[in-house]
Amino acid sequence: MTGNASEIEERFAALGCITLPALRWLKANGVPSRAITNPEMPASAKVAFQVGSPFFDFEDELEEEAETTCAMILMARDLLGEPVDLVAWSARMQRVATWSGADLPMLGWHNVFTPRLDLGDALAVHPTPLEWLRDSREGIVILKEDRARFHLQGFSLKVDDAAFGRRIRDALRWPEPKIFVEARVRAAA
Question: Distance between the two ends of the chain, CA-based, in angstroms?
Fold first, then answer.
């Protein structure tokens, strides 16, 4: 599914509201109220995470039977803050995936060029949407490492955990070029 901003907003508006137990869970896990409600509240839906893929399908889109789970749905925005995709997150399954097939490299993409006044203007990178929500939707959650490296080149990043920092550093590292040496036959003089 590839959609424009209005299709994405329309699909999001048609989803069910986040459940009261899910709201309580977010609050109990340190998410501030304004991060839950601003710029919009997360939605809730039954989704099927595609196996071996960074995408998901809504239950009503499935053409064949697949395992579904209830997931929190977050609106993802581009660098200008416009809706670009929907992100499904299941804390229970530890899965995050996108819906529309847009080339969305990160949740919180709109924060990349937002001014920051601490830690040398470093951009916060969070391991899951829970930490991103705890941080009032500041910073990013990397969804597609191969695409995020293009957008984050030259940025200072900050993380809360050294091991996660090493994983992100390695994931964002540019692959070394393959260099071939051409063998030439020298003519005898």
Answer: 65
Q: Considering the entire predicted model, what is its pTM?
A: 0.86
Instruction: Give CA–CA dist 124/133, Å, rounded.
Output: 12
- Two tokens, residue 27: 């609050």
Domain with 54, as residue range(s), is 5-172
Does the residue 15 lie in any domain? yes
Does residue 134 fall inside a structural domain? yes
In Å, the largest CA–CA distance within the chain is 87
Residue 47 amino acid letter: V
Q: Count of domains in the chain?
A: 1
Cβ atoms of residues 56 and 99 within 8 Å = yes
Residues 124-174 pLDDT 10s: 999 999 999 999 999 999 998 988 998 898 888 999 999 999 999 999 998
A 10 A CB-CB count for 35 gives 17
Q: Which two tokens stand for residue 127?
A: 């391991």
Position 180 in a domain: no
Q: For residue 185, tell me if it sits in a domain.
A: no
Give whole-number Cα distances, 173 to 11, 111, 126, 128, in Å: 35, 21, 18, 20
**61, amino acid identity:** E
